[in-house]
Structures are given as structure tokens and as C-alpha cells.
Write a structure and sequence with these properties.
single chain, mainly alpha, 358 residues, 2 domains
Length: 358
Amino acid sequence: MVGITGPGSGLDEALARERAGETGALGEFLASLDTAGRREAALALHRRMCRQADEELVAPALAALSREELGWSADEADALLVRLLGRDAEVAPHELEASFLALVPLALSAADQAGEFDRSRVRVLRSMAESLRVHRQDVFSLLRDRMDVLLEREVPVVPGLLPRHLLDGFDAYGPEMRAAHGELLAGAGVTEFLAHCALLDRPRATQAWRRESAARLAAAEAGAELVRLLLEGIAARPEHRVNDADPYGPTLPTLAAAANTSLVRGLLWASLDVEADWVVPLAGAVALHAGTGVGGSGGVCRSRAMATTAVAVLGACGGARAEEALRWLGRLPGPVRNRTVLKGAEKAREGLAARSGG
């Protein structure tokens, strides 16, 4: 195979000929390669694009390569995504926005062909595509829709192996829970259950989401015990700086990065389907811990996303749980100073009181 990278490589020579006015030299070189060679060339060209080198020559070649079946592996797909987002990104956020249409399609093609990929980063790219639609709605909408299809895929299940995007390593919480509860996390049905929980990126769960959650929880080996342990883990986790894939994500210490925050939100709602005495106190403990200010005081809480979700879960309690949920909601004012969390707690208390006739 012709050399791809390094000084004097065939790729370097083809690019030099193009720069010298020999139109089509790069295309001829790529056409001379086998599939593995074209995949290697795509990786090299993508890196050049990240570094804003030979952009006018590289962008068309990347676009053509992104439409080919090149047999990408999951590691290669992840390598492309890591270049774009996170601590080891090779482009700044504003550079990614400017070169989004040149850099992202190849990464999506690799993710599509590999079957498994870094879902946390694809979710961030999806959000960016949505915000960039104002510039070219047709193209960015197509990319957004393409990412929706990827993210809606069922997670490949390998017995005994938790997928990378569940309890990922963007924060301290994910690795800690993996290390502490490895045996439970390898249980039958656990991946399917946690994958569903990880989809919840808002404070309230729909009835359809909750029905699916209940079914998957029932099918998960030791599912209720796992929910308890994972929620206890977040309720005891000190705030810390996270390595979020989102370039515009939290800069202050928090409890977990975006993917694990969504997972905790799902676990909170799933806990309502567990018949155990710990459900309400644990939801209350998460609301109190996440809602308290960073460092133990102030209006910028440890995790507003988790706190508002825990408050909503307490507000959804019924029957014998309602009175206990009211007591926990009543403990929030004082330690919690975030207005959004407190407003949600007041609304939850009013709803509980109305349903109980109080």
C-alpha cells in the first residue's frame, strides 16, 4: 500500500501537486488506494482539516470519503469524535462551528459504519447542529436528523460488559460506580435498563418513558438494588470539575457530566416503580445535595438538573409516600437557595397538598 502519513508520503505529495496547480492529483492518489488505505487517508485528511491546513483542497476530499463504505471500527469512530469535542479536542469550539460541515460528516459516517460510538459526543454535536440551523437550515437539519437516527439505535449488548457511554469517564462518578458495583452492572438486563435511563435529558418523564422504564427495570437483574446504590453514590459525591464533551458545558464544579446527569435523572424517575422504604428519602437526599450551592452555600447549586428532577419526582409521589415527600420538600428552603429549584419545590408541594386534600 502506498504510504499515507509522514514526511514524503504519497498523501503529502498529492497535496503538493494540487497546490502546484495539478488539479485532480489528490483524487487520483485516493483512487489508487485500497479500502484500508482510503480509511487511513481519511483520518489524515480529517486531522489536517482540524488544523486548518489546505482546507480548500481537503474539504472536498473529506466530503467524498464520508460517503464511502470504509469499514470503520469503533475505536476509529471514537478517535474522530475525540478530535472534535472534549479535553483532547484538536479544534476550538468556534473553529468546530466554522468547519462543522467539513469535519462532522466523516465522524458520523464512521460512527454509523462502526455500529458503536461515543454517544455523549454525538449528542453534543446534535445540539450544535440544531443551534447552527439558522445559518443553513437544509444542511444542518439533515445532519441533525442523521444524528437522531444514530442516537435512537439500540445499544449493542455484550453480556457482562457495560457500554462505554453508560457511567462514562467524563467525571469521577462514572468510574467510581463501575469500580464499586461491577458485578451488579454486569447483570442480565442492566444495560438495557440503564440505556433507557440515560435518555432522560429533562426534569420530567413522560408516561411512555415511565412505562418502558418499569418494564426494563423489572427485567434487570437486581435492578432495584442497583438503582438504590447508584442514587446513593450521587447523593454522596462531592462536587468536582468534570471533563464534559460539551465545549459550552459547566465550568464550575458539579456532580457529574452531561451523560451521567441524564442517567441519574432517569434513575430518579425509575425509583418510583420500586416498592421500598428508601425511595422517597433517597430522592429527597439527591434534591438536597444537588440543590445546595457549590461549597455548601450560594445560589449556584451543585447540579440544578439533578435537583429539579429530584424535586419533580418527589412531587409525583402519591398514596402513602405523599406525606413523606412533603416533609422532604419542606427541608429544601434554607440549604437550597437556587430560585429555579425552590420554585419547583413550591409547585411540587402545592400539587401534593391539592391531591391529598390538604
